[in-house]
């Protein structure tokens, strides 16, 4: 497997590259967050340290998730609950706190890889249908009754968060976190504006339910 390792500590990186090599993985090691965004395409999995010298790892993860569903395993000294929850909510597949046992790391890499393979098998599942609304998550296209509807980037992002969990209640914090990268940001009001716009553009207000005091749900 081709692994991208974002780690600025030479000692940690050296040990990881060696053990990964011994287990049949080829590792490209980078030291900066921005390099992740340059090299992610040629990798099967990303091992991401959060304390990077240029861009914080969580911000790297947020930016990466906007363009890629690459498997990401966060590997960090930051073990506080808020960081762990943020990391997972931003789309990390797993989160390991340093110092990590290498056998555990290898097992986690295997587990993430297995889950990703299973999730990717039915590619058609990347299109979500709710009533006569069709949301193609990869193509970022939305059709209502067969006609394409133009959405802004943020409107689509909000819709995509709900569509990936269609039929399930999604909390307001989760939408804010996934779209804006912060569950407690002051853009909270802007989310309501985007939802109003979305309802108007889709013309199917009954499909987009507000759950008072919690969040939203797309579909039944
Ligand atoms: Ca570091």
Describe the fold and architecture.
This is Response regulator transcription factor. Pfam families: Response_reg, Trans_reg_C. Keywords: DNA-binding, Phosphoprotein, Transcription, Transcription regulation, Two-component regulatory system. InterPro entries: CheY-like_superfamily, OmpR/PhoB-type_DNA-bd, Sig_transdc_resp-reg_receiver, WalR-like, WH-like_DNA-bd_sf. The strands form 3 sheets. The protein has a 5-stranded parallel sheet, sandwiched between helices. It is elongated and about 55 Å long. The longest helix is centred in the middle third of the chain and has 19 residues. It folds into 2 domains: 119 residues, Response regulator (Rossmann fold); 92 residues, Winged helix-like DNA-binding domain superfamily/Winged helix DNA-binding domain (Arc Repressor Mutant, subunit A), CATH 1.10.10. A hairpin with a 2-residue loop joins strand 6 and strand 7. Helix 2 packs parallel to helix 3. It has 8 helices and 12 strands. With 220 residues, it is an alpha/beta fold. 43% of the residues lie in helices and 23% in strands. The structure holds calcium ion (CA). The site of calcium ion has 5 residues, from loops.
């Amino acid at each position: 497997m081709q692994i991208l390792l974002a780690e600025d500590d030479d000692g940690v990186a050296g040990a990881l590259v060696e053990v990964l090599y011994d287990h049949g993985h080829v590792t490209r090691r980078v030291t900066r967050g921005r390099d992740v965004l340059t090299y992610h395409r040629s990798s099967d999995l990303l091992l991401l340290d959060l304390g990077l010298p240029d861009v914080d790892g969580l911000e790297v993860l947020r930016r990466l998730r906007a363009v890629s569903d690459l498997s990401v395993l966060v590997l960090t000294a930051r073990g506080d609950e808020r960081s762990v929850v943020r990391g997972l909510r931003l789309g990390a597949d797993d989160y390991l706190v340093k110092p990590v046992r290498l056998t555990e790391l290898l097992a986690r890499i295997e587990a993430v890889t297995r889950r990703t393979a299973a999730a990717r098998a039915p590619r058609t599942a990347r299109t979500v249908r709710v009533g006569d609304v069709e949301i193609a998550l990869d193509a970022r296209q939305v059709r209502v009754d067969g006609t394409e509807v133009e959405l802004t980037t943020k409107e689509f992002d909000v819709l995509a968060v709900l569509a990936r969990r269609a039929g399930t209640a999604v909390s307001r914090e989760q939408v804010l976190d996934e779209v804006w990268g912060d569950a407690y940001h002051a853009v909270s009001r802007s989310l309501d504006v985007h939802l109003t716009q979305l309802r108007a553009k889709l013309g199917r207000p009954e499909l987009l339910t507000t759950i008072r005091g919690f969040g939203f749900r797309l579909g039944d």
